[in-house]
Amino acid sequence: MLTGMSFLVGTSQFAIVGILATVAASVGVSISAAGQLITVFALSNAMGTPLVILATAKTDRRQQLLLALTIILVGCGLMAIPGFGFLLMAYVVLGIGAGVFVVTAYATAATLAPPGRQGRAMSNVSLGFSASLVFGVPIGRVVAAAYDWQVIFWAIGLLTLLSLFAVARVIPAMSVEGPVPLGKQLALLKNPNIALALAVTLFVFIAYSMMNTYITPFLTHVVMIGKGQISVVLFALGMASLMGSKLGGVLSDRIGTRRTLLSDMVIHALVLVLLSIMAGTRVAAIPLLMLWATAAWTFGPTQNFNLLSLAPEVSGMVLSLNSSFVQLGFAMGAAVGGIAVGSSIRAISWLGAVSVAVAFGIACIAFSRARTSQSRTPR
């Protein structure tokens, strides 16, 4: 049930990516302005979620899930009010609701699972979000082509309402552990190795967000893909993303986390450079875009393994911080990409390559520091 709801929540974030031009035209703004919906969603997710979690620390997890779904329902309701301002407000609310749901769903799944199966339960929740990227974007385009694009969010709202009843009936009341103060979480940033690793996350997701947010206009105006074929291409990119998520874990086990991260970032940057040069050639552009999606999503699980190795004693806190930096990357990438699109749509791939190159440089510094620290540790 939580996996299905995770798909629903993920679709509320990713569905708009495939219909950005349609949304922009319907509210009378430019594509770059509409792209800032991704920015406000990510910012409200990264900044609002810990505040709501702290404010509801004394409530049980079922109540937190109900609160998260109620916030998402309110966000979907705001979609019915005309105007770009209300659309922005709706995405702020959706970002907070989605963030609270994600945090609580992982904790709930781990609590409900029998001993020794917590990790599998949490991965099932994660599968819902991955599936929303694969199916949510093309489904959004199909629905928007047949009906008004707002129908997508009305459907999400209806399913969210049903989810409220399901959670109230099925999920038992569960006490929560004492909350970790926000100040204690931020204190982890004083650890140079963790701070550098989080900076790598930030710059990689800035690059990913620049391309992902404006992927539809990039396909239309640069690759020259017809509107009828875009859904097929987006589905293929979603499948490549799923393969990347699996590949990250496999490569980390076989060749090590550091080699996987560094080689992945090299491939990621090179693909973005080649895209800027060869995007006009459809035969080359589609495979390159699939390789880009694979490389971008190979990074995620590998970086999680890396962070866990840096601070295994505070794994929950460090992964929570990493999630916030992912969302900040989404926000900054959408914002920078919006400025770039105003001059040239091709610029997003160049800027993305630069951002990944910066992440690669930071990673080299971080790994060098770690090797130096290990060599100085007495045996």
The run of helices and strands is HHHHHHHHHHHHHHHH
Radius of gyration: 20 Å
Helix content: over 70%
- What count of helical segments does DSSP give? 16
Q: Strand percentage, roughly?
A: under 5%
Q: Uncertain spans, ≥5 residues at pLDDT below 50? A: none
Distance between the termini: 49 Å
CATH top level of the largest domain?
Mainly Alpha
Identify the CATH architecture of the largest domain: Up-down Bundle
Q: Please, what is the CATH homologous superfamily of the largest domain?
A: MFS general substrate transporter like domains
What can be said about the biggest beta sheet? Answer: none
Q: What is the 3D shape?
A: globular
List how many beta strands DSSP finds: 0
Structural class based on helices, strands and sheet pairing = mainly alpha
- Under CATH, the topology of the largest domain can be stated as Growth Hormone, Chain: A
Average pLDDT number: 81
Domains (count): 2
Provide structural commentary:
With 379 residues, this protein is mainly α. The protein folds into two domains: 1-179, MFS general substrate transporter like domains (Growth Hormone, Chain: A, Up-down Bundle); 181-379, Growth Hormone, Chain: A, CATH 1.20.1250.20. It is 83% helix and 0% strand. Helix 5 (61-78) packs antiparallel against helix 6 (84-112) and helix 10 (192-213) packs antiparallel against helix 14.
